[in-house]
Request: fold
Amino acid sequence: MTKAELKEKANSLPLLPGVYIMRASDGTVIYVGKAKALKNRVTQYFGSDTNHSEKTRRMVANVSEFEYFLTTTETEAFLLENTLIKKYKPKYNILLKDDKTYPYIKVDIKSEYPVLSLERKYKNDGSRYFGPYSSSAKKIIELADRIFRLPDCGKDMSRIAKRPCLNFSIGRCLAPCSREISAQEYRDSIEDAMLFLNKDYKKTAESLSKKMLAASDELAFEKAAKYRDMLKAVNALKEKQSVLASPQTNADVFSVKSDERNICFLLLVVRDGQIQDKKSYCFGLFDIEDEKSALSEVIQRHYAESEYVPPQILVRQLPEDCDAISTWLTEQAKRKVELFSPKRGQLVKLIDIADENAVEALRKYNSKEAKADQQLAALAYATESEVVFSRIEAYDIANTADFGRVCGMIVFTDGVADKKEYRTFKIKTFEGQDDYRSMAEAVKRRFARYKIGDESFTKMPDAIMVDGGKGHVAVIKQVLSELKISVPVYGMVKDDKHRTRALTDGETELALDKDAFALIYAIQEQVHRFSQTYHNKLRKYTVSQSELLNIEGVGPKRAKELMKKFKTITAISKASFDELLEVNGMNSAAAKKITEYFAKPIDKRT
Reply:
């Protein structure tokens, strides 16, 4: 459709809330938006572009068609918009990188000897959950395990081990696995650990102090010394923690800082009045419409991917659709969520701290981006390319004589590893080891899926790198030629010590300066590590399946279903009888045989 036709269609839209989808000429969804009144919002795109941002001008220039969905409320529009953005990942919407659900620390208090574990989702299973955390949960578990001498070995504490491991001997673990400590004494330690996880350092210190004095009165000086060491660790940590707000303050604090080129949205995570974590999202200024609408999008994308919404969300300047966002978050959290801009007191101080961190995050992003730009420019010069390679795909084959072949595909976007775009391929069409045939199969499958519109392979690379020399380059060029696809291909050549040496276009080796070399080296190391990791994972998976075949009543199909559900042989060994029965195709007899098998010592399993 022409711009005039699009404008005419937009003028026919109703003045009702809803969601609209912009599509390119090939049908690809390039933008999803919501509006209180569809007609007013969508017609703005196809009128004069005088007041449009650079991002909007670029988006509208690529629109060939649009469609819309009516909703009864703005909240419904929020939900539908988030669903469609998650489904289509449109080019011109703000998409947050590495937006994973925040993990929790779980303590199964129903267990006689509970341990601390990392859980991605909160479950109503009677356990105690602490968090959620963004990036520090694992470190907190490690710290708590060390301070309170809890087991970190992953053993099933319901089974009694013959002897404790080395950690017990060096005073790092209470060894509940071999019952070196009574259930009640161990429970006391877990209670202290839970006070610690709840950041109640005062009560934690009081509990440890009482135990130290009691042990001293009983002349158990070695035990008293251990409590003393725990107390010192807790007090040292307490001194480092600065309480910035009341202990009841649980909030996420958003700050926005920009310069002439980029913009950074920083999230400060505050729990129990203390800063627990921070997360930053940085973009180029051309990638946003304006600061307020971008902040609205960032908040929506962040909480669309998060299972936890705190009671308060603090900002310096209120974003667009503030009331609608608050209503949406309140419905999502099933309790009141307040999005507001404080004007005085401790909460303003939190925003000030978030601002300081946003400035630093923007500085680091600019430095990182400048380095990536320099490397990409150097690579374009080395390859005599008229354009800078925004998206680079790299491929590597991993194989061994005793176990099949796989291919790893990694992506560097604007000079930085883009792990969400990584893909893997199992080589299926032939037996034996042949790197060239393996590479041809993987690349052919990747671009064949692009041809049919597979959503996982919709983006075309600006350049392809292969871990290999002229032969590998020739193979990929042949595949692309057959598919009528034109993309430059380069081989990342290694020397006889398996170190990156040069780049080849299939005919000659290309001279690389230090910046281009640094980028190629990073790509080659990343793709090699990724393909080897995938290969090793599949190999371990297959070995685990083979062990399961030793169990009476478990055949290849049942072994596959067990691995599909539990992922690892360790998880299967810890599974209860009832959990095993949940496996597709499982029956009581086979589940019983599995529990009996793993109840035996390792050296007696046959």
